[in-house]
Amino acid sequence: MSSRRPAAPGRGAWAVLALVLSFVLALAGCASPGPDPAATASNAPTDIVGARTPDQIKQAGTIRLGVFSDKAPFGYVDSSGNYAGYDIEYGNRIGQDLGVTVQYVPVEAASRVEFLESGKVDVILANFTVTPERAQKVDFANPYMKVSLGAVSPKDAPVTSEDAMAGKKIIVVKGTTADTYLTTKHPDFQVTKFEQYTEATNALADGRGDVWVTDNTEALAYTKQNDKFVTSISSFGSADTIAAAVQKGNAPLRDWLNEELVTLGKEQFFHKAYDKTLKPVYGTEVSPDELVVEGGKA
Amino acid sequence: MPTSGIELLFEGRNFSRLMLGLWVSVRIALLSMLFSIVLGTGLGLVMNGRSRVGRALSRVYLEFIRIMPPLVLLFLVYFDLTKVAGINLSGEVAAVVVFTLWGTAEMGDLVRGSISSIPAHQYDSARALGMTELELQRHVVLPQAVRRLVPLTVNLTTRMIKTTSLVALIGVVEILKVAQQIIDANRFEYPGAALWIYGAVFFIYFIVCFVISAFSRRLERKWALS
Questions:
Q1: Residue A160 lies in a domain
Q2: Do residues A98 and A111 both lie within one domain?
Q3: Within this chain, do residues A142 and A246 fall inside the same structural domain, yes or no?
Q4: Is the Cβ pair B171, A41 closer than 8 Å?
Q5: According to the model, what pLDDT value does residue A241 have?
Q6: Is the N or the C terminus of chain A less surrounded, counting Cβ atoms within 10 Å?
Q7: How confident is the model over B24-77, as pLDDT tens digits?
Q8: For residue B172, how far is the Cα from the chain centroid?
């Protein structure tokens, strides 16, 4: 009986399979299909992969910094297509002081550690909060910013202290630092949890709660836009620090960053960066010292 | 001051950035489709072939790719290939490799389906008419299989264009990422901009996919059996 299956005798099948594999491998080896600097920053040639010392970076003439491209006011892209924000101010200064050009690589929160581990960037400057879990995978430099909790309440009924929250209806977003803090520190408080930020802010606006507890940066940005509310407590709870991170074991680069922070501290660099990038968003309700860290000393 | 945010589309270089982002998406998708069609045809023939080992291997490959989320494949090729083997691909090349791996599997299965959907009696009739195996393939199987493949391939292409939004995670800025950048950079002054910017992106995706579908319908009409 003749087979109804067409073509491809045994040997041919193997040849085709081999062809498939070789095509894939050939593709893997070939270069980028076309340079397009504006749209794909990461496509520029990346010759050396892995941890690079400051000297190697100077020699190469380019430093690759992983930053957020959509987290205003820390790292974002403006309407001209240029990177801007608090993290970017720092990044530009690092490039300037190393005497190299800066190549910004857009990263996502979920891929920050991977970018460092694979050596595709030299430094992550993407509003990276220092945590013990992350410190096992990357090496953090000293901090350049700190975040703690803040409380938002109506202007005509402000909740001005942590103790005053007892008996009040408190709003938090599930899974945030605020949620964890209140649950562990004040299990007796009356807390309503919401899934999303917009739900929490809507509840606050509707009067379903007396006070909203969240990161103080979020709180400040919100009250700057909403006249009826104030950031009645601008920082409380445990403070988290935000720092640059390098690949695990890249001590030369980390040490350079730490020395750089000391130098920058002398000229109050981060206060200037704050005035330029964060003040327009957070307003004058808060002293910059509650957010900015100079000289790497939180 | 109530502002809608639609004007953001045309502020500064925003519109040309969106278009550049679109070009990145389309370039990755079309290049991957090109490779996928070539390699997938080969794979489809193997899947229909006589070699049992070839059929088994191609089956394993297809199932492997189908089970693996594309995002995992992207991370494997972009990050782990560098970590483990020291092969450093740019984000876009990694994306083309991953989408080709995926497209080849899907294309292979489509080719297999299109060929095996041709009824056995056509083979028998062709042979009864005295056609050689080659003529049978050339005049009977191929024309019908290709005709069946056109809408399926177009469907895969549009799916691929939409899936390219994942490449933002490996640092490639495509249209959806540009949209998020525009929305975020203006989130304090234009809190309602998301609706307009995402709306524009939806419209742009629609136009691109519509053009491709229209092209496919034309081909189908042109090749229709009269």
A1: yes
A2: yes
A3: yes
A4: yes
A5: 94
A6: N
A7: 999 999 999 999 999 999 999 999 988 999 999 999 999 999 999 999 999 999
A8: 17
Domain ranges of chain B: 6-223
Q: How far is A134 from chain B (nearest CA, A)?
A: 18
Q: What residue type is A190 in one-letter code? A: Q
Choose the closest CB to B88 out of A49, A72, A80: A49
Minimum-distance CB partner of B168 among A17, A36, A108: A108
Q: Are A94 and A65 in contact (CB under 8 A)?
A: yes
Q: How would you write A107-149 as a 3-class SS string? A: CCHHHHHHHHHCCCCCEECCCCECCHHHHCCEEEEEEEEEEEE
CATH topology for the B6-223 domain: MetI-like fold (1.10.3720)
Say what the pLDDT of residue A15 is: 54
Determine the pLDDT at residue B226.
56
Q: Is the pLDDT at B79 greater than 60, yes or no?
A: yes
The pLDDT assigned to A45 comes to 39
The answer as to whether A43 is a domain residue is no
Task: Note whether B42 contacts A120, CB cutoff 8 Å.
Answer: no
Mean pLDDT, chain B, rounded, equals 92
Query: Number of residue pairs across A and B with CB atoms under 8 Å?
Result: 201
Same domain, A117 and A166: no
| Percentage with pLDDT > 70 across chain B | 98
Q: Which of A239, A258, A273 is the last residue of a domain?
A: A239
Q: Cβ-count burial of A116 within 10 angstroms (0-12 exposed, 13-18 middle, 19+ buried)?
A: buried
Do A85 and A130 lie in one domain? The reply is: yes
**Count of domains for chain A:** 2
- The minimum CA-CA distance between B30 and chain A, rounded to whole Å, is 12
Interface test with B, best of A1, A25, A49, A79 (most B CBs within 10 A): A79
What digits encode the pLDDT tens for the residues B133-150?
A: 899 988 999 889 999 999
Query: Is A298 a domain residue?
Result: no
Determine which of B24, B26, B90, B102 to mutate to test the interface with A (most A C-beta atoms within 10 Å): B90
Give the sheet arrangement for strand A62-67, strand by strand.
A101-106, A62-67, A123-124, A229-247, A138-154, A211-215, A169-173, A190-194
Q: What is the ipTM of this complex?
A: 0.84
pLDDT digits (tens, 9 = 90+) for A163-214: 999 999 999 998 888 998 999 999 999 999 998 888 888 899 999 999 999 9
Residue B194 has pLDDT above 90, yes or no: no
What pTM did the predictor assign?
0.80
The boundaries of the domain holding residue A164 are 147-239
Listed as ranges, residues in chain A with pLDDT below 50 are 1-10, 13, 27-47
* CA A193, A194, A199, A200 torsion-angle sign: positive
Encoded tokens for B219: 């081909």
Residues A132 and A171 both lie in one domain: no
Q: Supply the CATH number for residue A105's domain.
A: 3.40.190.10
| Preferred mutation among A30, A69, A88 to probe B, highest tally of B CBs within 10 A | A69
